[in-house]
Specification:
Layout (H helix, E strand, L loop, with lengths): L7 E4 L9 H10 L5 E6 L11 H8 L6 E6 L7 H7 L3 E5 L6 H10 L3 E6 L17 E5 L14 H11 L5 E5 L7 H7 L3 E4 L1 H4 L8 H18 L4
Parallel strand pairs: 1-8, 2-3, 3-4, 4-5, 5-6, 6-7, 7-8
The structure holds D-xylitol-5-phosphate and zinc ion.
The site of zinc ion (ZN) has 6 residues, from strand 2.
């Protein structure tokens, strides 16, 4: 797959109707989602529980774009094969999840997926510097992970430092948490290209009223593009 750094919107289905994931995924994709972001939580690395590989495999049947799976679990390595079998396109592990993140990223790639590494708000950009040749994506958390709908933490400086570190490497910078029309310009200007948004995409809509999802996605995209000087 060729690498392209352009603004992408990745709705997080953490804000979808949990009893209707298939239709929710199809609705956000019909309404312009570039990727579908899937938040896996274990009640241990983060204080919340969501779903595991069988649910992710069921989502796979509905995703036609890119299934971007964000693991907020520790340990990661024992579960990599199961998420590969479930059909993840991108598998992201936290740098804080264990002592052997380099091995984890290699194992994710060896499993046929693209490898992402996520950083909590309290972790400096430098923590991923030695990993940039074994990663396809760096996810900068703009909230403390665990829940949707939290307030954005400004990580503009961290994103700018990462963007400089990455240079010409084919590595996406993703931001996750509290992204909406107001915060998207700050992270896009700093160099983020993949914007995850849960509550700001799903608010005001439903599978029966999906046009609101489309308006929300386009509003975030336009705000990000205008901040980077590109036209919507
Ligand atoms: C937070 C998750 C996010 C979350 C974002 O732990 O990783 O992906 O769904 O939700 P919002 O956009 O509502 O902050
Ligand atoms: Zn996430």
């Amino acid at each position: 797959m060729t690498f392209e750094r352009k603004i992408r919107i990745a709705p997080s289905i953490l804000s979808a109707d949990f009893a209707d994931f298939g239709r929710e995924i199809r609705a956000v994709e019909d309404q312009g989602a570039d990727w579908v972001h899937v938040d896996v939580m274990d009640g241990h690395f983060v204080p919340n529980l969501t779903f595991g590989p069988p649910a992710v495999a069921a989502f796979r049947r509905h995703v036609t774009t890119v299934m971007d799976v964000h693991l907020m679990i520790a340990p990661v390595d024992p579960h990599i094969a199961a998420f590969a079998a479930a059909g993840a396109d991108i598998l992201t592990a936290h740098v804080e999840a264990g002592p052997h993140i380099h091995r984890t990223l290699q194992a994710i790639r060896a499993g046929g997926m693209r490898a992402g590494v996520a950083l909590n708000p309290g972790t400096p950009a430098e923590a991923v510097e030695p990993l940039l040749d074994v990663a396809d994506l760096v996810c900068v958390m703009t909230v403390n992970p665990g829940f949707g709908g939290q307030q954005f933490i400004d990580t503009g400086d961290k994103v700018r430092r990462l963007r400089a570190m990455i240079g010409g490497r084919p590595v996406h910078i993703q931001v996750d948490g509290g992204i909406d029309e107001a915060t998207a310009p700050l992270v896009a200007r700093a160099g983020a290209d993949v914007l995850v948004a849960g509550s700001a995409v799903f608010r005001g809509g439903s599978v029966d009223e999906p046009a609101a999802y489309g308006r929300n996605i386009e509003a975030i995209r336009r705000a990000a593009l205008s901040a980077t000087g590109a036209m919507a």
